[in-house]
Amino acid sequence: MNAIIEQARTLGGYETSSQLLQLRDQDWVLARAMIEPKRLLDLGCGIGSLLQGAVERWPELEQVWGIERSQLRLDLARQQLQGTSAEVVLQQGDLLELPAVEQRFDLISMTAVLHWLYPSEEQLFQWVAQQLDAQGVFLFTSHHPLSQQGLGGEDELVAEALLAMKLVVPGHVRQHFNEHTVLPMGTRTRPKAELESIVRRYFDVRSIASRSAALRIDNLEQYQRFHAATFGTYFSPLVPFARIEEFFARLGTIAEQRMARQGYVTDIPVSVWRCVPRSSKVPA
Ligand SMILES: C[S@@+](CC[C@H](N)C(=O)[O-])C[C@H]1O[C@@H](n2cnc3c(N)ncnc32)[C@H](O)[C@@H]1O
């Protein structure tokens, strides 16, 4: 079995691949807290990098909590956070099935996770609103790729690969996604206005800062590893099992061609939202 496919199956290698994109947002996000938190919860904490960054930024932090679905990632987070002065609580859990906990937090963060919760993000927002201190801050990031017919961001590379492999004819990519019940990233990442109307049911939005987030690679293998660590086998149902290796090979080639042509592989704007508890309740 090809090493990239094995990596995709386990979502491994995030510690290296996240340096290309997700890790770059960490300081940018934390700088927006504008409080000195004592109790921080990071949702979908991955390998614990944001928690580690927070402990370094705020030595007064007393407790850091992480909730994450992948046990492999939680194990890496535990290693990374070993020896920190704050109490560390790491829990395996699904963000869409969280029980209420007694603890309240003055800072709750969630980076590069929201699109995985579509279409049930509201459930999570409701939970966060219950767990946040009255003076607390909720910071999360959202991604907003340019989307055509609901296909955007990573979907575009996948579409190019499917076309190159002659698994689909031009004009029918969206239909191919539908037939294989794969939700495109361009659909999972809601337009900002639509997202804002959901967020405002639970929070006052104090600021939304946005910037571009270009993904650049040195070689084709680096993109393959990034894709495997970030998307795993998410897009694999679009491809016959026997051609998965070819699919990952094509993705690498397409990424390299995009890099040569335009100087980046993808450039998906990212936004960081600074939210606080609602000052008044919205009518149901
Ligand atoms: C792109 S990674 C981001 C990790 C980290 N927050 C960061 O910024 O580097 C997305 C993470 O969300 C986790 N995740 C996705 N859906 C989840 C869910 N429903 N419940 C818990 N964790 C989830 C994944 O396992 C993965 O570690």
What is the SS-derived class?
Answer: alpha/beta
Strands in their spatial order, largest beta sheet = 3-2-1-4-5-11-8
Question: How much β-strand is present in the residues?
Answer: 15-25%
Shape: globular
**CATH architecture level-2 label:** 3-Layer(aba) Sandwich
Explain what this protein looks like in three dimensions:
Helix content is 38%, strand content 21%. By secondary structure, it is α/β, with parallel strands linked by helices. It has a single domain (3-277), classed as Rossmann fold. The strands form 3 sheets. It has a 7-stranded mixed beta sheet with strand order 3-2-1-4-5-11-8, sandwiched between helices. The protein has a two-stranded antiparallel sheet with strand order 6-7. A two-stranded antiparallel sheet has the order 9-10. β4, α6 and β5 form a beta-alpha-beta unit. α1 packs parallel to α11 (220-231), α7 (154-164) crosses α12 and α11 crosses α12. The longest helix is centred in the C-terminal third of the chain and has 19 residues, at 244-262. The chain starts with a helix and ends in a 7-residue tail after the last strand. The structure holds S-adenosylmethionine. S-adenosylmethionine binds next to α4. S-adenosylmethionine binds at residues 18, 22, 44-46, 49-50, 68-70, 73, 94-96, 111-113, 116-117, 230.
List keywords for this structure.
284 residues; alpha/beta; Rossmann fold; 7-stranded mixed sheet; two-stranded antiparallel sheet; 11 strands; globular; binds S-adenosylmethionine
